[in-house]
Amino acid sequence: MTSVPTRPAPVSPNPGGSDHPERGLRGLRGLKPLGRMGDRVRLPAQPFLRHLVFFVLGAAFFYVLTTNVSTYNDFQIGEIALYAIVLGGLSLLTGLNGQFSLGHGAFMIIGAYTLALLQLHAHVGIVGELVSATLIAAAAGVIVGIPAARLSAPYLAGVTLMLALALPQLSSQYGSVFGGEQGLTTTPPAGPGSINSQEWLAWIQIFCALLVLLLLANLARSRFGRAFRAVRDDEIAAAISGIHVARTKVLAFAVSAGCAGLGGALLAFSTGVVNNGEFPLSLSIALLAAMVIGGAGSFVGVWWGAVALVYMSTWSGSLSHQFSLGTSAAAYLSDAIFGVVLIVAILAAPTGIQGGIRWIGRRAWRGLVGTPLQTAATTALVALAPASSTETGEPLGHRVIPLDGPPADDGGSRCRSAPAGGDDRVSGDDSVSGDDRISGDDRVSGDDRASGDDRAGGTHGETSTVRPDPEHEHDPEHEHEHEHEHEHEERSTP
Amino acid sequence: MKLGRGRPVLRRSIAAVGAAVLFAAYGLVATGGVAGASTTGVTAHQITIGATVPLTGPAAPGYSEIAPAMNALFKWVNAHGGVYGRKIKYIYLNDQYDPKTTATLTRKLVLTDHIFADVGSLGTPTNLAVQKYLAAQKIPHLFIESGCNCWSTPKYPTETGWEPPYTVTGKILGYYIKSHFKNKKIGELYQDTEFGQDVMKGVNMEVPASAVVSKQSYDVTTLSGAMSSQMAALKAAGAQVVVMATIPAATALAMLPAYAIGFTPQYVVDNVGADAPTVGPLLSSFTTAATHTKKIAAAATGLLNGMIFNIYQPPEGTASNGWIKVEKKILKKYTPSLWAKHGLDGNTEYGIALAYTFVQALKAAGKNLTRASLMNALATKSKSFVTPGYVPLHYSKTVHYGYEGGEVVQDSTAAGTFTTPAGTWPQVKVLSPVYVTTPGKGPVKVYHGKEPKVPKELAKTA
Amino acid sequence: MGLFVNILLSGIVQGMVFAAIALGLVLISRATGVVNFAQGAMGMFTTFIAFTLLTHGLGYWPAFVATLAIGFVFGALVERTLIRPLQGKPALNPVIVTIGLLIVLEGAAGSIWGNVARGFPAAFSQRGLVIGTTRVAFSHFDVFIVIAVAALVVGIVALFRWTDLGLRMRAAAFAPEVSRLLGIRVGRLFTLGWALAAAAGALAGLLVAPLSSFSPYYMDLNLVFGFTAAVLGGLVSPIGALIGGLVTGLAISFVGGYIGPDLEPLAALVLLLIVLMLRPQGLLGAAEARRV
Q1: Which fold has domain C2-278?
Q2: B241-245 and B266-269: which strand pairing?
Q3: pLDDT for position C286
Q4: CA of B124 to nearest chain A CA: how many angstroms apart?
Q5: Who among A159, A346, A417 is closest to C276 (CB)?
């Protein structure tokens, strides 16, 4: 049992080993129907192997997608992939570690210029270029992260915002190195044989994105990931339990900056030129918005955020043309529509698109239990929901209910227990989560099972790695689980 | 009960997913389009061209008018049979002056709209971001709306500028200063980008270094208010003539604090920042205190009066000029909303002239239009194109700049008589003959050719 | 010498403008803990409304008062419709909503009034005052800016310190749950905080517009520097906002004047880092234990 308080963790329906039988109970409920069907989807128990499965599935999906769409779509998919990398890093920083950056565009600049300068002055090959871009941006992240570790969220926001404004100025200040306003040109990698160069670039970008997200997911599952979460939830408690808080925060910042650097370098391939006009302050702000839209802390959500980011920039251009009014009034109207979409999205899905999807997934799961569609649904759920929830923890400040738990009344319970949005303002993290966690989980276990058995050790299931243990499936101790199972049967019978 | 509690979340989730799916679907639907039979973007009845311009965002004021004005001229062409029976379809997309977006939208134009050429895209960093791509696709990248010295290189044979390169206008202004303000102390204020640096490069080629007492610059991305410190520094250095390479807003934000501290040098302003209808309204506030707020519209252009600048096509104020008459008519008829808002100002005039240049090029390329025939027509026949420009276009196999000359004029608009679309235009006094020069070391020479007359077809039908 | 004085004076004016924006941010941050990215855009929008009122013949001062009132109502509306529903949701959500609001307002202003750089009238002459024999970079209007912002700060401080309402506002911000138990209508006080902040933003808009090119985006950079000022000052203190604004304004003015305008943001960044290294809670920030 970890002594650090962490978030209650979402539970995947996959069977697997667990160090903590008691905590595996909630997961078991998700598992049972699968077992009954007898065709459970068995994913590897090891997180790394399971992530690898996602990696392979993702690669297959994108291969089919890119070979079946137009070259322009390939270009856009590549852009989506590179933004997914940046958002993945940002999501780790904010969702997992509770830090708050308004200046990630600055790290993209560093990555992009590193790539361009390397192409100009040294020939280290594409791998060398991308790795260097990542490492140098990560080093910059350490430099920013050290002072940042001392700051609370809004102060950090102020510093990073100014960083995003100031850094591009340097490239015009030292025009002889950075090419001034014209910037530096880059050469995208040429594909082997007769492969369409746009498609080849998209594959490289997708590969990098899947690889980075794989690594990030593993990092989130490692002791570093637990440390990130512990620091996010309570620095003092984390420190008491032996976590070096400042070092952990700097590490999160460095990883996040490295991701942004890699994204920036891949963007430099897409545009074929690097200049400071490409990284305005608005980019950094858009990155933050996209991350929240996708679902902070979710590595699947970053894809949604990236899709929104890429289409937002092209939508405006196309829409204004389609209105085809003589003036730019229409163009402004489409700008305004974005703002509205952004606001509505946040109001409609407070935990981001991925949070919404996960919820729908849970509903669908319940509806489909006991039907032949179940297998398909399970596969879909495994592909979508747990990838983010199990591996990376829930979105910032959001409590996630087990897959097969009682109806997720997330918003409601939070509203009830949150002190009118007062407390969680300075930290950028939700300091109310403690209360909320307790009340929410208590209610859950009380309602559903009356026994409240998962409160073993007083942790309220507060672990980031709740996993069912197959060995306990028929443990008499957990008789009530079978009762629960009947509920399912009743519900799913038309 | 449990279901009931869940519902709002369901609705919200559906909305969120809906939004995501819409985004995705939009992209997939936006593909398609029809490729031309022989040349991409050209059919028997239509020529499709595209551009990326800022329609919104901080860089849009003024510049957002150019593409709609171009489209007005294309509409006139289309209304009169097109070019060899082909109508011009002009797709201009909003890149918000962001090179990333330019890169994306240009690929959209090429890959899904299948444009024949990219015509009249705006900006230096934005066009630099796509020059390589367009060249690789062998798509003509014509009449880039920027005076950067970077549009004429053998590396990109299908790329051309249009307006005089910044160094050319700088040389002309410098030449004028050298010959008319001998022994005066010269101050410089420039935008710290390609634009400002290139103009000053030209100025400094002509003006002796010993005459320059202070060089001030400003950063366009952090220009939020009056440039007090720069103007105070120019005043402290004792500058009597201030040469400015500024965008219109910056011209005003320099003149305001100068006036406030009682600093009234002779301003010599590059064409880009000297458009009176754009600069004037900015200055209006300054000379109008709160007690006279009813006169906001009737702004005082007192500060602009006396400003020296360069032009390369007829100024909007010369109502008797044939080109100006025609341009006003076209704007009024084919884009009434633009006309109502802006009338004929430097930007709308620029757009019409540029579009007319393209029409001339299409005509010169002949009935059998291909990308090669268009580029060839530009290189070999452009000197005979009839456009509003004071000097002929200068395209050749090796030179890809359009106009390489212009004249120096002085604003003579009396304070208070300011432009409205239907009202009075700013007046200018011509100070010099028309000069021609090159962006390189060549001398500034007087051009002796005739001012081009409006072609009959245009005068008659507009 | 003349250059030094002029740079100093324009730095002070700039600083007062930043202080006005920072003050609005501080009020909102105190009340609801949100960094309001739309603070500048809200001021921009109300200033455009003032512009419309002025062009329809309303006098400057009636339009001035009306604009502040509109700003007040606007702020309250934003809090009630956009911020209130997000209470208890992830802390970043209201911040993202204000980013959305910023985009909406700029888009709306662009489509209603057009994105042309305009001039906006000043309350008083903008011709510099003559001191001794030289004209310095300090006009009647600049005097008005200094007085107006100083009066605003004094008013807010007085409200918090000496009125019952102010006391309740502080209580609500400090401990909303306890305040609620004590019968304080916390929600209303949050709304009031937003309303006051938006009125301060409207004032800032009216003060900045004559100094810049008046377009839908003219407040953007001022917001960034105003945010810097608020962070420097400590995000909770009106006096801190004033000091932060002046420090930022002077730093930018001197760096721009003596070193180079390209380095202005870098100067602000360095200033911010130095101050926050020494005092992570800003100059006048609460010294309470920090929770991250």
Answers
A1: ABC transporter involved in vitamin B12 uptake, BtuC (1.10.3470)
A2: parallel
A3: 66
A4: 7
A5: A159
